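Q: Structure tokens for this one, please.
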Amino acid sequence: MSDWIDEEGFRANVGIVLMRDDGRLFLGGRAGGRGWQFPQGGVRMGEHPEAAVLRELTEEVGLVPADVDVVGVTRGWLRYRLPQQYVRRQSQPLCIGQKQRWFLLRLRSAEASIRFDASDEPPEFDRGRWVDWWEPVRSVVYFKRDVYRRALHELAPLVHGEALPPYPNWWGEAEAKRASPPQGPRSPAAGA
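A: Here is the predicted structure, written as tokens:
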């Protein structure tokens, strides 16, 4: 099945914010040492984001639905554009970026359940680490930082209530101004 790219050129994608009971988040180290990011993957044509997130969870980190609880999901699609050098101009339809639904999942099983060889495809990750709530914004590649910032702000009330976790020293005024989303997340009970 092929990925779903909308009429504006954005590839539908799901992002996985995997959290332990202590509130720390999982970041995967991209295979070959090319940086850190949350697990994520494309939504196939005709596939619901809820199904895609469970498929990607298994493909990227070897977990199955029984290993996690769905805590919530962003209300809408969060978009980012690819830098010009990453746009695949020969692909049809042309993909200029991604639109993502972000799912907050709580790990129920042991951390040892996470594995990077559960798919027939080459692994996306070859290592992982657990980090504080805002660290992924600093760790991800520059063109994904704003979408990470927005997703974490939208999902934070599900974990931290109205008091957001404190911003780290590196956060800066510019990040704080861009951060606040217009609306809150949806809980699974709200039809996520």
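A few notes: The chain has four helices and eight strands. The domain at 10-131 is CATH 3.90.79.10 (Nucleoside Triphosphate Pyrophosphohydrolase).
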